[in-house]
Amino acid sequence: MWLRAYVVVSSLMLVGLTTAAFQQRPPQTMGEITVERINVVDRDGTLRMVISNKDRMHPGVMDGKTIDRPRPYAGIIFFNDQGDESGGITYAGQVAGSLRSASAGLTFDQLKQDQTIGLSYGEANGQRSAALEVWDRSETPLSQLIEELNSANKLTDAAARDAAIARARANAPSASRRVFVGKALDRSSQISLSDTNGQARLNIIVDATGNPRIEFLDAKGKVVARLPAK
Hints:
It is built from three helices and 14 strands. It is α+β, with helices and mostly antiparallel strands and 230 residues long.
């Protein structure tokens, strides 16, 4: 009798605990937390977002292949429904003696590929750029390049490793920048539209001295018409 009652009570407790484990917990309110990294996941554990300092930033992943590289940038990395990296926000900046350097970016990746649109800022040696950019990307999954680079990084011979990395990058499908809207390093403001090969074909420019011009270019980058003519 007592054994039967014990089994029944134990079963009810197990059911209760299991049910409670799958119930959504009420939100908690905290005034302030200090962390080095936060991983945001779906209920099934799929990684969807990482908020991190520069020491623990996620290196990136595609088709389950994690990139073997350091990523010394603080920010936020986004991941899609399949757990592939799909863009993010990164930023860095430092002053070392008389040298200043900084960078910041917000990018969104093409599916299975690298960034296809981005806002970026960069500064080095007193030169600065800031722009909206749009790229054409290959249909070839980026995971192929990741696998080749990871294999190259495992080589112990430095010369062989460098050669393998260079070969992998050289054989990777190229990306063409189609649109640039922003401020260039020469302090000119520009709108540059390019063809599918990445060659600028139309430039609207106001240079650092305030002089405006419009340039039409051929497929080899030669200016074929200009307004004003001089």
